[in-house]
# Entry
Amino acid sequence: MTERLGIIEIGTQLIYYVFSSLMLFWALWKCFWDGKRNRIVLFILTALSNSMIGLFLAVYGGISFSMSVIEPLFPRVLGYSMPYRIAEVNPFLIAGPLYIARILFMAWLCGKWLKVKNYSSVLFLFLMFGAVDIVAIFRDSGNINEIVHPEVRYIISIVGMIAAFVSLCLFYILDVKPFSKLAKVSAKVNWKIFNIPPIVFILVYTITAGESLSNNENELLLFMLFLFSTMIIFLFIWAFYVIIRNIHETNEAVKAKEEVKTLSVEVMEALAHTIDAKDEYTRGHSVRVAKYSKMLAEKLGLSKEDCDNVYYMGLLHDIGKIGVPNEIINSKSKLTEEEYAVIKTHPGVGYGILDEIKSRPDLSIGARWHHERYDGKGYPDGKAGEDIPFFARIIAVADSYDAMTSNRSYRHYLTQDAVRSEIQKNEGTQFDPKIAECMIELMAEDKNFEMHE
# Structure
């Protein structure tokens, strides 16, 4: 029975190390393979990344370094001989960082060959596979024969390998599959959340288990350490599953918000085109006013959100014209006082329409007050100076600029010099001086006079 268990133990170990390499290969393939790389080369790279090889090299390097460098160094520096165990220190203090360094190198090598832009995402997979493997490798000291029956030792070892199998399967199912979708999108992720925990775990576990092995501590204590570490691995797997799922949900929410925002802008632009279509000479007017308003807001140093908001207000600033009869809007003769009075109602009508949009009450600002003047002689409320909402003052300049740079039934659009002179003449009377100066600066930058209908 003991011999059979021994054979089964060796078999599970060999199968596990092959299985671990295959799982890493499948994980890298699912997350990063683009169909252009050679799968055989990828498999060879993952086979060379096997943690058994890495741990052997790290432990051997740690022991060699401690014995050849640290041990001779202390007597030479301090002038007296030190006990072997003290001079040797603990080779696993060196083995842990060496093991992680090899993981870093192999992850970099695979990431470079796969042409992955975000190297840290590849490193996450290597670190988690390395953490599971290192717990499986350190599951016992080999001295349990002195404490318990050999059959128990083999059973404990086999159970440990099965736990490692389960860990890898859970990691692949819960983390790798959803992670593969995250790795293929250009989302900004704080990869410290993913990489720091397994790095710290590997360092602590290597030193703790290595010290226990070096001191031939009780095998049952080592097995308890293995069980505790396996529980931590399971905790990592679940925590990363939750984190990845939350990132996906956040990305989906952001995507949905952007889609709604895009749809809203498209609807507003379509509505603006519909309003402008009432007058054959004002086609595209609202979109141009919105664009100029946003340019002015950017020139004034406003935030991106404010720049976007003033753009939306500009799109809908003339929505009140929907209530003005077409014959008045398209009149080719000078408007009568009665007709002009009807035209002057469009800010109030627009305000009434947009004020019904409770989620965006700011949209009505541009509609109501874009015809107010800085000197208080505008309409509909006769506001003056700083009493006029800032965004409305911006739209007022943009609206007048587009009116002067658009064709009308009675004239061609004005020259850039004529428009500049008109804006300068009305600074402080019709226009907010600061905003008018910004408009003049924009005109100066428009050397080819492209800002017109």
